[in-house]
Amino acid sequence: MDVAITNPNGLVCHFTGVYACTDIAERKNLWRVLTKKARVITEPWVLMGDFNCILSNEEKWGGEEKAEWEMADFRNFVADSGLIDIGYVGYPYTWNNKRGGRANVRERLDRVLVNPRWQVDFESGFLKHLGPGGSDH
C-alpha cells in the first residue's frame, strides 16, 4: 500500500505499508523498487510493516543464527535508500513461531523505516512494540 497524505496546512507525507515476501528473489525486487522510490521522494516518508528480514542476529532469539548473506540484502537496501530505522520501545520481537521449548524462535520482522525528512519533521515520533499476543506477529 502506498499513499500520500496531505494535512490541512498542505504538508504532504508519504506512507508505504510493507509486506515483504518470504522468497529472497521477490524481496530483492521489492528492495530495488523501494530504493528507486527513495531517490525521488523529498517529502516525509514512512515505511511500516513486515519486512520478513532482520538486520542482524541481535534481532533474533532461538534457532540457528542467520547467515550473513541472508541479512546483507536488507541492510544494503536500508543503507542505499538512505532510510533510518526509528527503533522501538517495548518487547524486542515482533514475530514468534509459537513452538514450545528449544524449538521456539522469535525475530524482529516488523519495523518502521523513515527518510531523513520524516525524522526532522516528526522528531518526537516513535514505535511501541506490544507484548506477544494470539497472533504470530
Structure report:
- With 137 residues, this protein is α+β, with helices and mostly antiparallel strands.
- The chain has a single domain, classed as 4-Layer Sandwich (Deoxyribonuclease I, Chain A), CATH 3.60.10.10.
- The chain has helices spanning 24-38, 68-80, 116-121, and strands spanning 2-6, 12-19, 45-50, 60-61, 84-85, 89-90, 95-96, 106-107, 110-114, 128-129.
- The strands form three sheets. Strands 1-2-3-9-5 form a five-stranded mixed beta sheet. The protein has a three-stranded antiparallel beta sheet with strand order 4-8-7, with no helix packed on it.
- α1 runs parallel beside α2 (68-80).
- The model has no long low-confidence stretch (mean pLDDT 94).
In short:
This protein has 137 residues and is α+β, with helices and mostly antiparallel strands. The chain has helices at 24-38, 68-80, 116-121, and strands spanning 2-6, 12-19, 45-50, 60-61, 84-85, 89-90, 95-96, 106-107, 110-114, 128-129.
Features:
alpha+beta; five-stranded mixed beta sheet; Deoxyribonuclease I, Chain A; 3 helices; about 140 residues; three-stranded antiparallel beta sheet; globular
The low-confidence parts are: none
Question: Helix count?
Answer: 3
What characteristic shape results from the CA principal axes?
Answer: globular
Which value, in Å, is the CA radius of gyration?
16 Å
Bin the strand percentage.
Answer: 25-35%
Strand arrangement within the widest β-sheet reads 1-2-3-9-5
Report the biggest beta sheet as strand number plus sense, adding barrel if it closes.
Answer: 5 strands, mixed
Domain unit count? 1
* Counted beta strands: 10
Name given to the CATH homologous superfamily: Endonuclease/exonuclease/phosphatase
Oligomer: single chain
> CATH first level: which class?
Alpha Beta
Structural class: alpha+beta
